[in-house]
Design a protein that fits this description.
Elements (H helix, E strand, L loop, with lengths): L1 E4 L2 H12 L6 E3 L4 E3 L4 E3 L2 H8 L4 E2 L7 H8 L5 E5 L7 H4 L5 E6 L11 H7 L4 E8 L9 E8 L6 H24 L23
Parallel strand pairs: 1-2, 1-6, 2-5, 6-7
Antiparallel strand pairs: 3-4, 7-8, 8-9
Helix pairs in contact: 1-6
Length: 205
């Protein structure tokens, strides 16, 4: 597996695959950022963990970087798994694995495509949410759905609780999707663009 992800949410799924004895051939995450009062360079959780576990790690500023694409093209993988990477992946990457490039997204697609699905579902007063695994296509979070699981948003739930449920329900769902694809036992459900809504980023303020 090649893995694309950046924040702690992504890391929960990378570690899960690693612990399930998947061979992680490479990891790609967003470049380190300056943060905190001292503006210290801070590696993303995914990059930090990958380096600690001696897994080849890439942090290209742009995914169409020729040197980066050259290196990736030399590493053969069965799957690429994308979880909260923070950028659209291009066609060369999508078509690279033997099987598929798949994405785990924290909403019941086509609802809440985009950057902040957990927060937007709470702000909107949704009664339920869930996790979707889909085939990655060029358009943002619009690829056909492979599988999906839903759960209720309780009145007392805040972002942290929903986050934990996403991880708990999403990990076995990801494994289920990969196994179904390997056995050629999966179906694609085309998303309806008419029913789509966009979860735009939450501003710091």
């Amino acid at each position: 597996v090649g893995f694309f992800g950046t924040p702690d949410f992504s890391l929960q799924f990378l570690k899960y695959l690693f612990n399930k004895k998947f061979l992680i051939k490479f990891v790609v995450s967003q470049p380190a950022s300056k943060s905190g009062r001292g503006k210290k360079i801070k590696l993303s959780p995914v990059e930090k963990w990958s380096l600690e576990n001696k897994i080849p790690s890439f942090t290209p500023k742009k995914l169409d970087d020729k040197k980066f694409l050259e290196k990736i093209s030399q590493i053969s993988v069965d799957f690429i798994v994308v979880v909260a990477y923070g950028n659209l992946v291009n066609e060369q990457i999508i078509n690279h694995p033997k099987f598929l490039t798949i994405n785990l997204h924290a909403s019941l697609l086509p609802k809440w495509r985009g950057a902040a699905p957990i927060q937007r579902s709470i702000l909107q007063g949704d009664k339920e949410t869930g996790v979707t695994i889909m085939k990655v296509e060029k358009k943002l979070d619009a690829g056909p759905i492979i599988n999906q699981t839903k759960f209720k948003i309780l009145d007392e739930d805040v972002g942290g609780e929903i986050y934990n449920k996403m991880v708990r329900f999403g990990q076995p769902l990801l494994l289920e999707a990969i196994n179904a694809i390997l056995r050629n036992n999966h179906n694609f459900i085309i998303q309806s663009d008419e029913d789509a809504s966009y979860a735009k980023k939450i501003e710091k303020k």
